[in-house]
Amino acid sequence: MNTEQHLSKHLLYLTVGTAVILLIPFTAMQFTSEVMWTLSDFIFAGILILGTGYTYLLVTRKSGSSAYRAAIGLALGTGFVLIWSNLAVGIIGSEDNPINVWYFGVIAIGIIGSVISRFKAEGMVITLFVAAFAQALIAAIAIFGGYYQSPPSSVLEILGVNGFFVTLWIVSALMFKYAAQKEAEDHQSE
Any idea which UniProt keywords this protein has (predicted)? Predict the structure, then answer.
């Protein structure tokens, strides 16, 4: 099977998978008033899921390195969860808290750094360490700025949630570092 057919097959799986995932809130809406999605919610969720999956397929399609593919998957998954949770409930306080907009800066760092580095493992290491630093900086600003006083965010919650994302960014960066080292070793042995 050539690369184009392989990509088409995976795109079909991705599209069907996205539709199945979107059926979950749609079905829940039929049985409870706790889930109230609008058409724009479904459209945005579909774009976010498809966009994340499609990016993974495009970036990893020529990579033979499982470490690189895992690192890309973790970085994209971390960005996906950060966006989803920030829009759904907010990271600090509610989703309407203005400091939550800053988290899109972390995503912008990831996107811009990835494009500048052309998704090369060495550049992705730097990009993801910068993203981790930015995430930690937002947490520090939130704590020193008194944002923990806006319910339901306590200092512990702000540190815990941001620490979770910082850890994921760092683990992904370390996975890229490993992938870059393996790639360098493979080139030296040739």
Answer: Membrane, Transmembrane, Transmembrane helix
